[in-house]
Write a structure and sequence with these properties.
The chain is mainly beta and 578 residues long. Helices cover 10% and strands 36% of the residues. The chain contains seven helices and 33 strands. A six-stranded mixed β-sheet has the order 10-9-12-17-14-15, with no helix packed on it. Strands 11, 13, 16, 18, 19 and 20 form a six-stranded mixed β-sheet that branches. The protein is globular, with a radius of gyration of 23 Å. It starts with 6 loop residues before the first helix and ends in a 20-residue tail after the last strand. 51% of the residues are buried.
């Protein structure tokens, strides 16, 4: 069966048009009944903002940094009208929302839509199906995500209880960055000369850098708590290029959810969270009255410069108004910035809840295999150019030695309308040349990737296994890989080269964590499984923004199944033009 409908079929007569409208109403591409619909208005605009004694026009949604929280229930239809008031194109991605058959609402520029241009609007319409928990939304074009992001919270259906002890209060905690300069200008400079990017000037907790930065005495987030109460903290890493450790002095956490999927309770005193990941934790305010520091600082595996600073916020116990108690500030102990052992321990302790109500449906028999080598590369400097990468070259990145080039027409549109010449369907299922992926590589070796707009085609409902293999080209580094359109089971991971004859035997096929953003261990591999039950064009990329800029991305083309219920819905009438 063809992947998408033919252009002539889409444009045929009035009857087909009416049928499309009916399908749109039925499947939330158009506004469904108001009682199950949540409406939001997003205005992308500049807002003058000051941090670190530096004032600048900051790109925001509705003048807020971080942006507004979206709160919905499982089963809701969501309608978000986004209006672009700035000269730069924009899009919004609903990170972790499955978008069943509604890929037009997913948001990555030139993958599922062309951008929203200045003065134009686009209305994202989608339904929340079989999901609940903490996710995020963010801009998905250039480096706008630096300040255009916010929490996306999905509560259970009305009357459905939280499957773990009910908290007394909940608090979103968004980790991010502050840039004195323009992040888009940093990206443009990187693309121009092929060098490494400048780093951010501060990390932030709920938009504030905290007491350890200059001019920040008043730029510190403070969360007041009642002794004896339990707090649900929805932790979100919205930073561009940094994985982060997070802790609160003298407090333990119970992890109950990762990437919007319930987990078995896991107690720890520190979290490692990569860009694009979310971790939901329960914290009991069980310490003596005081002011306890929340802190976030980077987990680092790269050999390039990075922001070595620490963001702080305050957890302050409430005391009677008449009390003269002076509350001391207590700092947490965080792992060392290069503590890969701790980061690995945290990731491997996560397990799916796998209860009767929330079972783990791990594919047991695999019929579609992908082995994807994830690499940083060094491109030869073009003639008559200035290049600032190592050894006079240009930094790039690739998957199976294919460095992704964004097209001028959105891939989903090209697939839906059968537009030729936009992408190729020959993305290799294995590296073109196999080698010792984690052995040291000499600077004299060829590190050039191929450049393409390649797409891997996957049959509808296939049981898919993906091995993501880290490589030593340009040094070892952890890569948080985000997969759009799916949650995937992380059935195994390890260091060195993946060995199917040995490593597959240790896969967890019972209760592996279910995630949308997965860390490929430095100098290691990770194994993923999922059922390709969501037709459409789905982006996969590193959520370290610089790596995506360099080309560490690709797309999955999941074919239509049988009949309309297993097919991508028609595009909405206000889809932005290219």
């Amino acid at each position: 069966m063809a992947f998408f409908v033919n252009r002539k079929l889409f444009l045929c007569g009035w009857a087909a048009f009416v049928l499309s409208l009916l399908l749109l109403f039925r499947d939330a591409q158009c506004a469904p009944p108001r009682r199950n619909t949540k409406y939001f208005d997003f205005h992308v605009q500049y807002h003058n903002t000051t941090r670190l004694c530096k004032s600048k026009p900051l790109l925001t949604v509705n003048g807020q940094f971080p942006g507004p929280t979206i709160a919905v229930n499982e089963g809701d239809n969501v309608i978000v009208k986004v209006t672009n008031h700035v000269k730069h194109n924009t899009t919004i991605h609903w990170h972790g929302v499955r978008q069943f058959r509604t890929g037009w609402a997913d948001g990555p520029a030139y993958i599922t839509q062309c951008p929203i241009q200045e003065g134009q609007s686009y209305t994202y319409r989608f339904k929340i199906s079989e999901q609940r928990g903490t996710l995020l939304w963010h801009a998905h074009i250039t480096w706008q995500r630096a300040s255009v992001h916010g929490a996306f919270i999905i509560y259970p259906k009305q009357g459905v209880p939280f499957p773990l002890p009910k908290p007394d209060f909940e608090v979103p905690i968004l980790l991010g960055e502050w840039w004195n300069g323009d992040p888009d200008a940093v990206e443009a400079e990187t693309l121009r000369f092929g060098g490494g990017p400048n780093v951010s000037d501060a990390y932030t907790i709920n938009g504030q850098p905290g007491l350890l930065y200059p001019c920040s005495d008043k730029d510190t987030f403070v969360q007041r708590v009642d002794a004896g109460k339990t707090y649900l903290l929805r932790l979100i890493n919205a930073a561009l290029n940094d994985e982060l450790f997070f802790a609160i002095a003298n407090h333990n956490f119970t992890v109950v959810e990762a990437d919007g999927c319930y987990t078995k309770p896991y107690t720890t005193d520190c979290i490692m969270i990569a860009p694009g990941q979310t971790i939901t934790i329960l914290m009991k305010a069980d310490q003596p009255a005081g002011r306890y520091t929340m802190a976030a600082r980077p987990y680092v595996t790269a050999s390039v410069p990075f922001d070595e600073t620490t963001a702080t916020a305050i957890l302050e116990y409430k005391v009677p108004a008449q009390s003269s108690l002076q509350l001391p500030i207590i700092m947490p102990d965080l792992p060392a910035m290069r503590d890969t052992h701790y980061a690995t321990k945290f990731a491997t302790h996560l397990r799916s809840l796998n209860s009767r109500e929330y079972p783990s449906n791990v594919p047991q028999k695999i019929d579609h295999h992908l082995f994807l080598a994830v690499s940083l590369n060094l491109q030869d400097c073009p003639a008559n150019s200035i290049c600032k990468g190592y050894f006079g070259g240009r930094f790039s990145a690739s998957i199976n030695n294919q460095s992704f080039i964004h097209p001028k027409t959105a891939l989903l549109q090209a697939a839906y309308y059968n537009i030729s010449g936009v992408f190729s369907k020959d993305f290799p299922s294995r590296p073109p040349h196999e080698y010792n992926y984690t052995a040291p590589i000499s600077a004299a070796q060829n590190m050039n990737p191929n450049f393409s707009t390649g797409v891997a085609v996957i049959p509808y409902n296939a049981n898919v296994e993906v091995i993501l293999q880290g490589t030593s080209i340009m040094g070892f580094e952890n890569h948080p890989i985000h997969i759009h359109g799916f949650n995937v089971y992380v059935v195994g991971q390890g260091f060195g080269n993946y060995d199917p004859n040995k490593d597959a035997a240790s896969f967890n096929l019972v209760d592996p964590p279910l995630r949308n953003t997965i860390g490929v261990p430095t100098a290691g591999w990770v194994a993923l499984r999922f059922k390709a039950d969501n037709p459409g064009m789905w982006y996969m990329h590193c959520h370290l923004e610089i790596h995506t800029t360099w080309g560490l991305s690709m797309a999955f083309l999941v074919q239509n199944g049988t009949g309309p219920a297993q097919s991508v819905l028609p595009p909405p009438p206000d889809l932005p033009p290219c």
